[in-house]
Amino acid sequence: MTGMSLIVRTVSRLLLPFMLLFGAYVVLHGHLTPGGGFQGGVIIAASLLMLVLAHGMGRIQAAIDLLRLELAEALGGLILVGVGLAGVVVGVAKFYGHVLPLGTLGKLFSGGDLPLLNIGTGIKVAAGIALIFYAMLRMAGGEEL
Amino acid sequence: MRRAVALSAVLFLGALLLLAVNLYLPPFGSFPERGLGGFEGRSIGQHILEEAPRATGSANIVTSVVWDYRAYDTLGEATVLFTAVCGVVMLFRALGRRGR
């Protein structure tokens, strides 16, 4: 898969940090504004895919590490299960019971465990979607994972 | 001939089901089991809208439902994604090996 023209490559390079920032914002403010882990994770994955489409698989291949993506996805899943189990072990003896204090409504550090769960989901969804697309694109290019 | 019989059977059964739904199910929007959960006065949605910000500390009520009231359900959703990713990676890795 070859890259696109110089204009597309330049614009994608300029756009990438803003898309990553917006994805992180949607994830981190998941308990305050519309959005959350799933949506923000998909935005982050889409920014990575835009890079592949603009620059081509050949140039991106050195920069991405599929094993690291798989590890990131597993880490996100571990965060989700770990927070759920923390409710059983530490606090209220309830699966997904709140362990952290609730805080004041509307502040960034509020909502108990919800921000942690949103971050876990964001990592998991971003890595998972990016992994699916990279695997498919590599197969389309006829290369082994 | 068989087609006509099958079609008429499907139509008959469908009409029977629609009639049964109309006759025997409680009307749309009423939910008799609600009394068991202590929600007699208001609907569950109304209850969550009023109680969620105080009970979960989250200003976004959708998130408080997704990761607090229904966190176990959402864990299943995340598991679906995990399984899908595992399947895609395993499948395409195997296909890549065979292609060599």
Write the layout of secondary structure elements.
The complex is a heterodimer of chains A (145) and B (100).
Chain A: H1 6-28, H2 37-55, H3 57-61, H4 66-89, H5 114-140
Helix pairs in contact in A: 1-2, 2-5, 4-5
Chain B: H1 2-24, H2 44-56, H3 61-69, H4 71-99
Helix pairs in contact in B: 2-3, 3-4
Globally, the shape of chain A reads: elongated
Count of β-strands of chain A: 0
What's the average pLDDT of chain A? Answer: 84
Strand-pairing-aware structural class of chain A = mainly alpha
Average predicted confidence as pLDDT of chain B: 82
Oligomer: heterodimer
Reported for the largest beta sheet of chain A, the result is: none
Q: How much helix is in the residues of chain B?
A: over 70%
Helix content of chain A: 55-70%
Global outline of chain B: flat
The chain pair forming the largest interface, with residue counts per chain, is: A-B, 44 and 32 residues
Major pleated sheet of chain B:
none
**End-to-end distance of chain B, in Å?**
53 Å
Task: Offer a few descriptive terms.
heterodimer, A: 145 residues, mainly alpha, 68% helix, elongated, B: 100 residues, 2 domains, 4 helices, 74% helix, flat
Structure write-up:
The complex is a heterodimer of chains A (145) and B (100). Chain A is 68% helix and 0% strand. In chain A, helix 1 packs antiparallel against helix 2, helix 2 packs parallel to helix 5 (114-140) and helix 4 packs antiparallel against helix 5 (114-140). Chain A has one domain. Chain A is mainly α. Chain B folds into 2 domains: 1-69, no CATH class; 70-100. Chain B is 74% helix and 0% strand. Chain B is built from 4 helices and no strands. In chain B, helix 2 (44-56) crosses helix 3 and helix 3 (61-69) packs across helix 4. Chain B is flat. Chain A binds chain B through residues 30-36, 66, 70, 73, 76-77, 80-81, 84, 95-96, 98, 102-106, 110-114, 117-118, 121, 124-125, 128, 131-132, 135-136, 138-139, 142-145, and chain B through 53-54, 56-60, 62-64, 66-68, 71-72, 74-75, 78-79, 81-82, 84-85, 88-89, 92-93, 95-97, 99-100.
